[in-house]
Amino acid sequence: MNFFYQLGIFFYLLAARILAPFNIKARQFTRGQKASFPYLESKINHNRPIIWVHCASLGEFEQGRPLIEHIKKTQPDFQVLLSFFSPSGYEIRKNYDQADYICYLPIDTLKNAKRFIELVRPEKVFFIKYEFWFNYMNLLNAKQIPLYLVSAIFRKEQLFFKSGIKAKWYRNILNKVTHFFVQTPESARLLAEIGLKNSTVTGDTRFDRVAEIAANYKELPLVETFKDGQQLIVAGSSWAPDEEKLISFLKQNPKTKLIFAPHEVKASNIKRLKEQLPTPAVCYSEAQDKDLASAQVLIVDTIGILSSIYRYADIAYIGGGFGVGIHNTLEAAIYNIPVIFGPNYQRFQEAVNLKERGVAFSIATSEELNTILTQLLTDSSQRESISKKCREFMAENLGATQQVTQKVFNKK
């Protein structure tokens, strides 16, 4: 199995290099891979011990971020190295000021893993959620460097829990983890069934992150003017299939206010959305001199303010559920409002939990969306009940970051 793993790594890197001239992400990835070792050799300073935090991409970074910031605050004797595998994480967060060093993780060959670990010499290592790199984990284990998996979640259909040679090989990777900090009791149970009892159910560190964001929200006068005291739906990280269903609702409810914050803010996508709307929309970047109070639709054509926009919403619609999966539901739910999303949400534990609590709703058709929105907008007692359930749910799930650091650093 080792041979096939290394072969797969080789072909992955080869494919990225072939695609690089034609694909921006492949180009960023290959350039980042080449730059990692020169960067580390010129920057690394061992005057203080280093903690290495690895996130695959931007979503995992949002889970790792509260951990990094808590370490920087409570363990000032340590430096933090933050690594990414995906360009969508590195390119957006390469200037993150809470990490001392930020780089792409060199692809997982034995040679790269040896060189990286010898350069960094980490004292402790945190992999976030779904990261399982064979050579890195083997070498960390051989050098007795503690490796912690944080905000991990396991499901019975994963290869670790099946039979066969391939499954056994993958299970062996898990043996290299010092401790698992898992999101659910089910994850801890699955690990115990294969003999791994070194786990603690701490939940998802993203709860701590969204609570911090909500506590430090940005005042958005333009959004407040647009809302004008009326009920407001905010569609966050929306894609075309989400927007089609929301536009169908708008056509039947011309007095309802709606903000679209599309996942893609490039001009061509904003133009496409505006052309499909039943009434003229105002773009956020051009809203300063517009009559916002009389507009029905506001389109957010910038990034970085969605989490604060949710504060003004009465209902949130989270995009992505008609594709590979929904975006961040917690950013909206932290404001104690109903959350709606498409049918592909099962891989997101927080969405499953919110739906089970009666706080979130899944829809598959325009008719279902119309029914749920109409019900929520007209039934104030239901919204009040949902608000209470949201507050309870969030309160129950805060504190994962502190639990992790207390156990790792032996703090009472």
TrEMBL record:
GO molecular function, one term: Kdo transferase activity
Compartments where located: Cell membrane
GO cellular component: plasma membrane
Pathway connected to this protein: Bacterial outer membrane biogenesis; LPS core biosynthesis
Protein's organism: Sunxiuqinia elliptica
Catalytic reaction annotation: lipid IVA (E. coli) + CMP-3-deoxy-beta-D-manno-octulosonate = alpha-Kdo-(2->6)-lipid IVA (E. coli) + CMP + H(+)
Homology family: Belongs to the glycosyltransferase group 1 family.
Keyword set includes Membrane: yes
Signal peptide span: none
Keyword Membrane: yes
Gene Ontology biological process terms in this record: lipid A biosynthetic process; lipopolysaccharide core region biosynthetic process
Enzyme Commission number(s) of this protein: 2.4.99.12
Start and end residues of each 3-deoxy-D-manno-octulosonic-acid transferase N-terminal domain: 45-208
Database matches in Gene3D superfamilies: 3-Deoxy-D-manno-octulosonic-acid transferase, N-terminal domain, Glycogen Phosphorylase B
Protein name, per record: 3-deoxy-D-manno-octulosonic acid transferase
Active site per UniProt: 60
Function according to Swiss-Prot or TrEMBL: Involved in lipopolysaccharide (LPS) biosynthesis. Catalyzes the transfer of 3-deoxy-D-manno-octulosonate (Kdo) residue(s) from CMP-Kdo to lipid IV(A), the tetraacyldisaccharide-1,4'-bisphosphate precursor of lipid A.
UniProtKB keywords: Cell membrane, Lipopolysaccharide biosynthesis, Membrane, Transferase
